[in-house]
Amino acid sequence: MEAVKSLDDMPSDVVSKVLAFTTPADAVRSSAVSRLFRAASSSDELWKRFLPSNIDEILPRAVAPIEFSSKEELFFRLCDPILIDGGNESFALERSTGRNCLMVSSRDLWITWGGDNRYWTFTSDYESSWRRIREDFNPRCKKHRLVLELMYLKPE
């Protein structure tokens, strides 16, 4: 096997595999190093590693279709939250690490006395991600239980 004399002689798929052990932010930064790193940092195989393994299950749940031409473009589109499951949840990727972020509407939460208007009510808040938010009238009764499907969580 012949030794590599210059970094530019290395195959870009090898560089992509090395970059896959870094973070999305590092992969983007590395594109400034050379043409080889620019090609490696834009490969679909690299960006596929930064996307959640269950992305094919998440995308069909989006309220609006997500259009993309590459895995890198999909990654950055998902860095801005998308509504899923009829608009009751929001999914996003953290830009620098690729970690999953899931926000759940208060309507999807089971809350003690949640159906009793003496303790809770839904109000409009136009600054919120959700059109209606749950307002608490009795701060002493805050037993909240949240059950998330573990499929959203990315293994460490």
Automatic annotation (TrEMBL):
Pfam family of the protein (one): F-box-like
Domain F-box span(s) in chain numbering: 4-50
Domain of life of the native organism: Eukaryota
InterPro entries: F-box-like_dom_sf, F-box_dom, PP2-like
Annotated protein name in UniProt: F-box domain-containing protein
Species: Musa balbisiana
